[in-house]
């Protein structure tokens, strides 16, 4: 049996819909490494699948900052219902075994998602979720060194994007984020050495913004330096967007 685009392929080549994950409000479903027992300092946790070490954590609070910080045995976020949650900064900070993040729903009230996945060095996949109300994206993917691609998040209300993807050394494409109110993008893609494309398109979008961005030093510093196509794009980006504070 195979899965593809939220569908299941049966052996007789018939398709059936894979059921959507439905969770109660303010609940997140998590999978931990086999043989480990997670410790939660806040909220109520229930093991819903002992064989696969899957837990549902419910925390009825608007502020989820640092809620799972340092959970080094967390390997997957299966999904979450973030209804009424506004702050998710550092939610998965330094979750060094986290590889995959599934779909978040009811995220329209999110405001702060800075450092959301910072130092998650094994992170490979993140599903697109609604970030249209978020203001701060600072260091969201800072040093996620295994990440090759990310969705083009809606950052139309994002003001702060400092070091958002800095040090993502495996990133291959700069996503064309939806922006419009950005003011600080310092070091946004600094040291993303292996980018092959996308930097020039995002630079053109950011640099044409009105009012103009006030802080953009090192936004694309070394971005794409180690690829032929990336270096060619970098050569077309002004130096003040590559160096400085």
Written description of the protein model:
The chain is mostly beta strands and 245 residues long. The protein contains two helices and nine strands; from the N terminus they run βββββββββαα. The N and C termini lie far apart (52 Å). The N terminus is likely disordered.
Mean pLDDT: 94
Report the end-to-end length measured between terminal Cα atoms.
52 Å
**What is the number of E strands?**
9
Radius of gyration: 19 Å
Q: Helical content, roughly? A: under 10%
User: Structural class from helices and strands?
Assistant: mainly beta
Offer a few descriptive terms:
245 residues, mainly beta, 6-stranded mixed beta sheet, 3-stranded antiparallel beta sheet, 2 helices, 9 strands, disordered N terminus
């Amino acid at each position: 049996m195979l899965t593809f685009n939220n569908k299941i392929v049966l052996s007789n080549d018939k398709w059936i819909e894979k059921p959507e994950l439905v969770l109660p409000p303010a609940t997140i479903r998590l999978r931990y490494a086999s043989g480990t027992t997670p410790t939660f300092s806040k909220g109520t946790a229930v093991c819903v699948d002992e064989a696969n070490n899957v837990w549902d954590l419910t925390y009825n609070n608007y502020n989820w900052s640092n809620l799972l910080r340092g959970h080094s045995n967390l390997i997957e976020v299966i999904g979450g219902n973030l209804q009424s949650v506004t702050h998710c900064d550092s939610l998965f900070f330094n979750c060094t075994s986290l590889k995959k993040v599934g779909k978040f729903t009811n995220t329209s009230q999110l405001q702060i998602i800075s450092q959301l996945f910072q130092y998650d060095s094994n992170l490979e996949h993140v599903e697109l979720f609604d970030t249209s109300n978020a203001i701060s994206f600072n260091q969201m993917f800072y040093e996620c060194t295994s990440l090759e691609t990310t969705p083009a998040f809606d950052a139309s209300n994002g003001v702060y994007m400092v070091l958002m993807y800095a040090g993502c050394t495996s990133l291959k494409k700069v996503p064309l984020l939806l922006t419009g109110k950005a003011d600080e993008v310092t070091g946004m893609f600094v040291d993303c050495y292996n980018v092959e494309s996308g930097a020039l398109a995002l630079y053109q979008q950011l640099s044409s913004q009105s009012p103009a961005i006030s802080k953009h030093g090192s936004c694309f510093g070394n971005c794409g330096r180690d690829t032929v196509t990336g270096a060619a794009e970098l050569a077309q980006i002004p130096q003040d967007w590559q160096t400085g504070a």
